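User: For my dataset I need records formatted as: sequence, then structure tokens, nothing else. Please produce one.
Assistant:
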Amino acid sequence: MKLSIERLIFIRRPVVEFLECAKALGFEGVEFAEFELQRLTKDGGFDHSTLFHAVKNQGLTVSGIYWSADFHKREERNNILYQAARLAETYRRVGCENVIIGPPRGGLSAGLSQDQVLQLLDQLVKTLAEALKVFVDNGIKPSLHNHYDTLIETQTELEYVLSRIEPELLGFCPDTAHLALAGMDPAKVIERYLDRITYAHLKDIKPFTKRAGRVEKWYELTTELGSGIIAFPRIISLLKYSGLVEWLVVEQDFSEKDPVYSARESRDYITTLIKCVKS
């Protein structure tokens, strides 16, 4: 299993500085979100080709790119399929082998009932399945990312999508903190879908309380790996046991510390755990 770091905690730092830090800290890969790549292209700083060249110059790999769209909106289908075709060709050309599928915002957090969310997921499944085929045909592996405050937050929503799209088209990228926020036991969910996991987001979170059934400003509660409530020893044991996982991605949305210090703490914790935990 190789270690990657997601860009978010370094989002206020220049891209080149982020890459230099990732290399110096001993990470093998980095992950970006497509929405940031679009912004960088618009600002004239980077496009996909120049960014991947900068990553390669640091001796790093782009482990994956996070892509989200309004898959649940029927009127967006053609635009989404066009995006998928363009992105798949670009990712193939620059050597990115993983696309992480982010769910659209909304769902229970927007006041919808579970039944209303499932109705939206019907259209999401149809459009997403078509888009996934485009990526797979280009040699890129898609994985579904669960996310709090979106249409794929709960166990019911996650199962609804994964049970309706073939594993050959869609893997599962568990986000440990978002599973906990949704009231699930991350280790149990990972064990259930273990044969669909080749890419995972490791995120820790501080103890939280809910108001009116929701966790407010949850992103401010994310913390360095090993300092929150997530039981990582069991999770790492499962992921090592499967033998399928290629990338473990360290992710943290917020820190009051210098991001270099936070990233180093998480890296030290998880590398020690990988060495010590038995599969």
